[in-house]
Recover the amino acids of this structure.
């Protein structure tokens, strides 16, 4: 049975793109448009991996990530952060640093937009095989 | 020879021993003379007295001898006695007279028996009444005459002859003349003896005193002379102890004492002379002595070592290379008034400029006149150089202070401004004496967290950013304080340097905006790129797998994103280019209607009410319709987004207002959506600032504002989080615009 990846992004084009890439590589995909929805889908569908956008309306990826890591039910699901902001763009939004300072378990990978599908797939395989 | 002899005599006569001997002998000679005279006189007197006593005694003897003869009236006996006695060598003659002066008897043979006129001898006659024995020496001093009176006695009056009555007291006189020839011879002899003795004594004493002078006084005097000469040469050493109690020893002792004192004084004098000489030479300043001719007479080592031997030269030539005296000369003043004077001079010695502080003092001669002037000159070249440097530095610092491109004020501990620089004076006017907080901030009380106060407290430098309000304008300044200390290190004043950073602040804000703009833009581009990339991938995937649905989806993604790129590029161009608006004569209502129509479908699907609050016709105006359309579209788009974001169950309404008010055209877009926090409001007109995530370009309001500015209009925004936002655009419809209308109409 194919492994399930939850694609979280408020941008429909991004969801389409990432879902297509994952499906072409033999994964099953589900999607969510914001953090709130993503948490629900995690609990409900128990995906094997979450591809998470950082900036979204309703609940940002950061907020969702923190809650996810606190929730025993879903805290061990691997997460690949997909973000449009690199630390060079806006220093105040250095997510890696932010995570590190709060001693929260770091996500399995960071992928910056625009997404290189080979890099992305490598990270996915490394996380869930 | 004679001359030498004369010289010797003169010397001898003027010598002390001669004078001493001469005057001693003279005094002795006079004394002996007086003594001899008195001695001879006394001897003469004594011999005469003896002679008289002898003569009186003889006359008494004769009187007694002849007494019996007279009593017996025996004349012959009387004559014989007289003759016998009269033959004695020393007897000249013996006469007997009666009371009437008639001679009755005489020792002279031829006159015997012949009466003698008694009146011939006046002296006897005058003595006739006197009963005492009289005597005198004859005028030619050849004999002594003694007259012995023959007094009546009882025997006479009662005698048989009874020749004399009892009443007759003096019966006659016996006259004895004694020869004096031998007496004077004796007197002469005695005189000669006395003189001989006196002369012998004089010679003896003179000789002894002369010898005494020669042997006792002269050697002492010579010794003293020699010692005096040695003393004069400074060779004499007084003996410690001198015995002897005579005047010479006293003199020698006195001489030694004098010599000791002289030696002592001389030594002291020599010591002080050496000291003053050493002082003169070694004193660490230039000492020169100048005479009335202004020539250097003496100079000390310091002067000679530095400038060489300039003695004999005129001071003005030596010091300054001048050809005549200096105009203001302290030496001249000292010569004139005898006082000390002081001046600062610049010497030019051996090509180097020497700044000296000159003090003159008079050197007086024995009459108290200023003979020379001592010049004491202290080299103050280094000091002067430092002074000049200091003055230059002070000038430089003053220049810096005055012309520094920042406000500089100096404030005292009571916060009074005591000094200001030019820039400050220019912008704030004269403020000396006023409180700094009054001037800077128009406050009545000290500011909290005052850097000046901190500097007064800890002596350190402090800085703060301050906002000054003046003439209704805000000025941001960076205030840096620095302590000004007194010589004890106490902070007495504080300097405030205030740099106007208003422009910097503005630029800083713009930089932040620029940074945010670029970040926003890159984010937008990344999103578009991702969309494109995704679309391309999905198309590829569809083609590979023969899935048309994917091809269609992917191609739609590509088209959407290409459109976004197109919009973005147009937006950037619109926002950044100096685009000249293309004015047309239109009715603003038509533009408003177009915009509302554009968004009506979207609002309806999202359950948002869109209210058209404008009349169908607002009248023709000259506007750039495309620009106004774009501006209003952006506002409505924002309102839509705000309504979407709004939380709560209220019905969302967007009201689009358009009306003419006076000479202006008013557009308003009002929503009751989410509203904006301050932070968002601040960044509202920044390029590429967007709250819409991937859907916004961040250029909407920038374009809106640009359009409004192109129409010389204004735009304002009122917003409150949770209540909604109102954007108001006011565009003036000017006469020029009317002219344009006419032009357009024609």
């Amino acid at each position: 049975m194919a492994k399930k990846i939850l694609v979280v992004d408020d941008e429909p084009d991004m969801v389409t793109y990432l879902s297509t890439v994952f499906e072409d590589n033999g994964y099953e995909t589900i999607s969510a448009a914001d953090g709130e929805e993503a948490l629900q889908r995690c609990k409900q569908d128990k995906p094997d991996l979450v591809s998470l956008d950082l900036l979204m309306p309703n609940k940002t990826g950061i907020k969702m990530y923190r809650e996810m890591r606190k929730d025993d039910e879903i805290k061990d699901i691997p997460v690949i952060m997909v973000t449009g902001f690199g630390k060079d763009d806006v220093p105040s939004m250095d997510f890696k640093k932010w995570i590190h300072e709060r001693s929260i378990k770091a996500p399995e990978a960071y992928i910056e937009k625009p997404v290189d599908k080979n890099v992305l797939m490598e990270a996915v395989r490394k996380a869930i095989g | 020879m004679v001359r030498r002899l004369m010289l010797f005599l003169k010397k001898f006569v003027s010598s002390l021993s001669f004078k001493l001997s001469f005057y001693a002998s003279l005094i002795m000679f006079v004394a002996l003379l007086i003594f001899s005279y008195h001695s001879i006189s006394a001897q003469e007197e004594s011999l005469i007295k003896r002679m008289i006593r002898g003569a009186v005694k003889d006359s008494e003897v004769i009187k007694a001898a002849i007494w019996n003869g007279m009593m017996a009236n025996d004349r012959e006996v009387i004559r014989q006695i007289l003759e016998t006695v009269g033959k004695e060598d020393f007897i000249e003659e013996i006469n007997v007279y009666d009371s009437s002066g008639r001679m009755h008897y005489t020792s002279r043979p031829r006159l015997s028996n012949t009466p003698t006129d008694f009146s011939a001898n006046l002296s006897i006659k005058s003595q006739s009444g006197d009963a005492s024995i009289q005597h005198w020496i004859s005028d030619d001093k050849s004999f002594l005459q003694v007259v012995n009176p023959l007094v009546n006695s009882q025997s006479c009056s009662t005698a048989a002859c009874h020749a004399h009555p009892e009443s007759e007291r003096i019966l006659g006189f016996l006259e004895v003349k004694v020869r004096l020839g031998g007496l004077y011879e004796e007197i002469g002899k005695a005189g000669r003896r006395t003189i001989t003795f006196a002369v012998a004594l004089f010679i003896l004493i003179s000789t002894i005193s002369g010898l005494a002078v020669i042997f006792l006084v002269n050697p002492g005097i010579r010794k003293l002379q020699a010692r005096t000469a040695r003393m004069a040469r400074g060779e004499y050493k007084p003996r410690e102890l001198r015995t002897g109690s005579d005047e010479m020893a006293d003199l020698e002792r006195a001489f030694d004492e004098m010599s000791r004192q002289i030696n002592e004084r001389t030594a002291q004098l020599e010591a002080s002379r050496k000291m003053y000489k050493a002082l003169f030479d070694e004193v660490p300043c230039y000492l020169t002595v100048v005479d009335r001719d202004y020539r250097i007479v003496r100079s000390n080592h310091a002067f000679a070592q530095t400038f060489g031997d300039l003695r004999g030269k005129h001071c003005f030539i030596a010091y300054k290379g001048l050809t005549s005296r200096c105009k203001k000369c302290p030496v001249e003043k000292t010569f004139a008034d005898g006082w000390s004077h002081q001046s600062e001079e610049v010497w030019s010695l051996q090509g180097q400029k020497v700044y000296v502080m000159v003090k003159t003092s008079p050197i007086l001669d024995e009459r108290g006149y200023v003979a020379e002037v001592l010049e004491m000159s202290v080299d103050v070249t280094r000091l002067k150089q430092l002074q000049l440097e200091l003055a230059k530095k002070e000038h430089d610092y003053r220049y810096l202070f005055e012309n520094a491109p920042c406000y500089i004020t100096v404030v005292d501990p009571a916060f009074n401004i005591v000094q200001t620089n030019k820039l400050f004076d220019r912008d704030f006017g004269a403020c000396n004496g006023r409180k700094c907080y009054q001037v800077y901030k128009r406050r009545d009380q000290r500011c909290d967290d005052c850097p000046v106060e901190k500097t007064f407290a800890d002596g350190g430098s402090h800085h703060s950013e301050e906002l000054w309000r003046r003439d209704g304008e805000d000025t941001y300044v960076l205030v840096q304080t620095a302590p000004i200390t007194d010589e004890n290190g106490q902070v007495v004043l504080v300097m405030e340097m205030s740099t106007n950073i208003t422009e910097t602040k503005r630029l800083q804000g713009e930089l932040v905006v620029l940074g945010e703009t670029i970040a926003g833009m890159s984010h937008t581009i990344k999103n578009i790129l991702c969309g494109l990339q995704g679309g391309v991938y999905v198309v590829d995937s569809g083609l590979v797998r023969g899935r048309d649905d994917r091809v269609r989806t992917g191609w739609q993604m590509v088209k959407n994103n290409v459109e976004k790129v197109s919009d973005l590029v147009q937006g950037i161009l619109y926002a950044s280019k100096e685009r000249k608006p293309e004015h047309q004569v239109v009715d603003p209502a038509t533009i408003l209607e177009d915009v509302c129509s554009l968004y009506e479908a979207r609002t309806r699907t999202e359950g948002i009410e869109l209210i058209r609050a404008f009349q169908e016709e607002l009248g023709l105006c000259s506007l750039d319709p495309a620009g106004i359309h774009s501006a209003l579209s952006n506002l409505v788009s924002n309102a839509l987004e705000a309504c979407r974001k709004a939380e709560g169950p209220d019905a969302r309404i967007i009201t689009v207002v358009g009306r003419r008010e006076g000479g202006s055209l008013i557009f308003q877009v009002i929503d009751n959506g989410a509203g904006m926090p301050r932070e968002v409001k601040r960044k509202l007109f920044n390029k590429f600032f967007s709250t819409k995530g991937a859907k916004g370009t961040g250029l909407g309001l920038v374009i809106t504002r640009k359009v409004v500015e192109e129409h010389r209009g204004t735009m304002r925004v009122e917003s409150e989080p949770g209540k909604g936002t109102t954007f108001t655009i006011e565009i003036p419809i000017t006469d020029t615009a009317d002219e344009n209308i006419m032009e357009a109409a024609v």
About this structure: The mean pLDDT of chain B is 83.
